[in-house]
């Protein structure tokens, strides 16, 4: 599914004007990275795409339909947060199943999706553990499994690796990249890490001072003569 941002503006209030005239086209199956300094509005932009925060002006379209008019289900969208948002009292398996159970899926469909997702992120052997019994990387993979199991076409990731140490970040970067390619996800990935942006992105949007400073391929953005 493609995503289109058209002159998007966001003011939280008169004093807090966060984004202005943000426009971009994200193609189906693309790995699209948003970079910019802390506080520049990256999370806000993701939340507007997800329909979690009202848009002050302009519009967000998913497959050429205005996002506010789409029922949440039709957005086929999932989100991965920086802190993973896992339920501490549920097992890995139940954490991945939780969102699916709220939907009208058959029990066997839920089981298949959860088991496949856990297999994909190599967590099958950990399915009965609680989040506190996992390493940081494993927790991150539970969050990824949840996104995989949702069968969404669009995945929004908000600094998903920023709580991991440097070595693990590199490994998880590769895992996310592989998943995105394998599933053909349209992925919008927020980071303030230029190396992540450079190594993963098809296109990068640089946000700065409320505006889109630049959109281009990693080569266009980072390789100046
Ligand atoms: P980033 O993700 O780039 O760090 P955010 O989108 O989180 O930036 O925040 C952008 C600006 O909007 C910041 O100045 C922040 O304080 C402000 N902000 C974020 N959420 C809210 C909110 N719910 N109410 C008011 N201001 C907010
Ligand atoms: P079985 O095939 O043993 O009858 P089920 O059909 O209930 O089991 O589920 C298929 C597989 O899904 C199980 O082998 C197990 O790996 C997994 N599974 C199902 N529910 C859970 C759960 N609540 N916690 C962990 N794993 C589960």
TrEMBL record:
Query: What's an example of a GO molecular-function annotation for this chain?
Result: ATP binding
Superkingdom is: Bacteria
Q: Which GO terms describe its cellular component?
A: ATP-binding cassette (ABC) transporter complex, substrate-binding subunit-containing
Q: Which residues form the ABC transporter domain?
A: 3-225
| Keyword Translocase listed | yes
Give the protein's recorded name: Glycerol-3-phosphate ABC transporter, ATP-binding protein UgpC
Record key words, sorted: ATP-binding, Cell membrane, Membrane, Nucleotide-binding, Translocase, Transport
């Amino acid at each position: 599914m493609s995503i289109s941002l058209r002159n998007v503006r966001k003011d939280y209030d008169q004093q807090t004007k966060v984004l202005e005239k943000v426009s971009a086209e994200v193609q189906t199956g693309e790995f699209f990275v948003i970079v910019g300094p802390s506080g520049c509005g990256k999370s806000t932009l993701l939340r507007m795409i997800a329909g979690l925060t009202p848009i002050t002006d302009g519009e967000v379209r998913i497959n050429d339909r205005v996002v506010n008019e789409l029922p949440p289900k039709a957005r086929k969208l999932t989100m991965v947060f920086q802190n993973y948002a896992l339920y501490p009292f549920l097992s890995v398996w139940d954490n991945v199943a939780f969102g699916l159970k709220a939907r009208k899926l058959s029990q066997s469909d839920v089981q298949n999706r959860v088991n496949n997702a856990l297999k994909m992120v190599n967590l099958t052997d950990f399915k009965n553990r609680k989040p506190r019994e996992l390493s940081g990387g494993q927790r991150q993979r539970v969050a990824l499994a949840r996104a995989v199991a949702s069968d969404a076409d669009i995945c929004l990731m908000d600094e998903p690796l920023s709580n991991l140490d440097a070595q693990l970040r590199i490994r998880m970067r590769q895992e996310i990249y592989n998943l995105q390619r394998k599933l053909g996800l349209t992925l919008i990935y927020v980071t303030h890490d230029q190396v992540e942006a450079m190594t993963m992105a098809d296109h990068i949007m640089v946000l700065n001072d409320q505006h889109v400073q630049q959109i281009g391929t990693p080569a266009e953005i980072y390789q100046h003569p």
